[in-house]
Specification:
Helix content: 40-55%
Shape: elongated
Strand order of the largest sheet: 1-3-2
Distance between the termini: 6 Å
Order of helices and strands: EHHHEE
Strand content: 35-45%
Structural class: alpha+beta
Number of helices: 3
Number of strands: 3
Largest sheet: 3 strands, antiparallel
């Protein structure tokens, strides 16, 4: 049995998010949460991945209560980071020019399995 959680429109670039996701992919949930706890002071993306992973675990617990099975050893089966839309902003520059700032968003999908 498996459960899915998605984080949409997260304010972090996909490259930064993928660095964190690669560290926890395929690991047991307990170990993954420990890794994310250590990284959360240094990387903003780690806090986002941590929140979505906890949501996936909560979704698994709800599904297991309805089916009657007990969660034993949960594993991060898959974790994918996809690009979201760009937020386009403008910064004023000299002589009436305007330069574009592109703020990147990400979509995160976490699947946990027993």
């Amino acid at each position: 049995m498996e459960a899915i959680a998605k984080g949409m429109y997260l304010r972090s670039s996909t490259n930064r998010m993928r660095q964190v996701a690669d560290m926890v992919r395929g690991k047991p949930v307990e170990a993954a949460l420990g890794i994310l706890l250590g990284l959360s002071l240094k990387k903003k993306s780690a806090r986002m991945v941590d929140a979505v992973l906890k949501s996936a675990v909560a979704n698994f617990q709800v599904k297991s209560e309805t089916s009657g099975s007990k969660p034993k050893n949960l594993v991060v089966k898959t974790i994918t980071v996809d690009a979201g839309p760009l937020m386009k902003r403008i910064r004023a520059h000299a002589q009436g020019r305007a330069f574009r700032i592109e703020k990147k968003l990400s979509h995160l999908t976490v699947v946990v399995s027993d």
